[in-house]
């Protein structure tokens, strides 16, 4: 039997409070914004070892079951007015918001608790730089052309050098 929260969404009905999950009361189930899903919401079940994402896309129901170890880490995103603590996945559409707030001390404390709870690193989004663009041409530049792959490579040999011999030159 699953343990569920009493609310139908991330916030109680009529409440103006922002998203705030308690890391010490897991498992928890809540709704989050999803731009690709029907109704722009997805349902998230957050456990200590796994995360289950449920959403409908064009009428097709789906459930994505992920291990917490599949996530990269816990990141702090946003500006000074509204900052968000996010469980970051390699696929940005699978990242999960954990806490939204403006109090820096509270966010830093929650950041450390979530990071320790899931045994994931704290990611500094501001210091992160985009990866260098990979070019496929550079990866295979040293290979032989495709039409030459069928041929055997020729044997490379050095021509003999005759030292201290008389040179015979034919002239008309």
Explained architecture:
This protein is 11% helix and 28% strand. The strands form 2 sheets. It has a 4-stranded antiparallel sheet with strand order 1-2-3-4, with no helix packed on it. Strands 7-6-5-8 form a 4-stranded mixed sheet, with helices on one face. The termini are far apart. The protein is mainly β and 172 residues long. Strand 3 (50-57) and strand 4 (60-67) form a beta hairpin. Residues 5-16 have low confidence and may be disordered. It has 2 helices and 8 strands. The protein is elongated, with a radius of gyration of 30 Å.
- Largest sheet strand order: 1-2-3-4
Q: What is the ordering of alpha helices and beta strands?
A: EEEEEEEHEH
**Which percent range fits the helix content?**
10-25%
Q: Radius of gyration, Cα only, in angstroms?
A: 30 Å
Mean pLDDT value: 78
How many strands appear in the DSSP assignment? Answer: 8
The shape is elongated
* Biggest pleated sheet: 4 strands, antiparallel
Poorly predicted segments: 5-16
Compute the separation of the termini in Å: 105 Å
Percent strand: 25-35%
Class from secondary-structure proportions: mainly beta
> How large is the count of helical segments?
2
